[in-house]
Design goal:
about 15% helix; Dihydrofolate Reductase, subunit A; 3 helices; alpha/beta; three-stranded antiparallel beta sheet; 10 strands; about 130 residues; seven-stranded mixed beta sheet
Length: about 130
C-alpha cells in the first residue's frame, strides 16, 4: 500500500512552466479539502502558498514525499513521487493546454481508472477530477 498523490495537470499532462504552476483554482482546493474530510494533506512550502488561507490539516515539509506514510494524501506540484510508491493518483485536469516544461510522466494506461467527474471551477469553465488505482 502506498501514498495517495493529488496533482493538477493540463490536457497534455503539463504541471509546471519555468518552475511555476500553470494555474490554480479555489474550487479544486475546496474539493480536495472536502474529500480529505480532516485527514492530513502533505505538501511542501511552495504548494502551501496556495492553501495557506484555507482551513485544513496540512503537514508542510520539503521532503514530504519521503515522510508521508501509506494511505496518506500528498499534493504535488514541483516534484513527483516514485510511481511504485503510489497506490492512488487523483488528477485535477484543466480544460486547457498551457506551456509546460514539467509533465506527469506516468503511463495512465497502466493504471485502473476509478472515477471521472467534471466540475465547474473559478478559473476554468470545466475541471475534471480523474482517479486512478494501481
Amino acid at each position: 500500500m502506498g501514498m495517495i498523490v493529488i496533482a493538477c495537470v493540463d490536457q497534455n499532462n503539463g504541471m509546471l512552466f519555468h518552475r511555476r504552476r500553470q494555474s490554480k483554482d479555489r474550487a479544486v482546493r475546496g474539493d480536495i479539502l472536502r474529500m480529505l474530510n480532516g485527514k492530513t494533506l502533505w505538501m511542501n512550502a511552495y504548494s502551501y502558498g496556495q492553501f495557506g488561507e484555507d482551513d485544513g490539516n496540512f503537514c508542510v515539509e520539503e521532503e514530504f514525499l519521503s515522510k508521508a506514510g501509506a494511505g496518506e494524501y500528498c499534493f504535488v506540484e514541483d516534484q513527483m513521487a516514485d510511481e511504485k510508491m503510489i497506490e492512488k493518483l487523483i488528477l485535477y485536469r484543466w480544460d486547457k493546454v498551457y506551456p509546460a516544461d514539467r509533465r506527469l510522466e506516468f503511463d495512465l494506461g497502466e493504471w485502473k481508472p476509478e472515477e471521472f467527474m467534471q466540475m465547474q471551477g473559478y478559473s476554468h469553465a470545466v475541471i475534471t477530477r480523474e482517479v486512478y488505482l494501481r
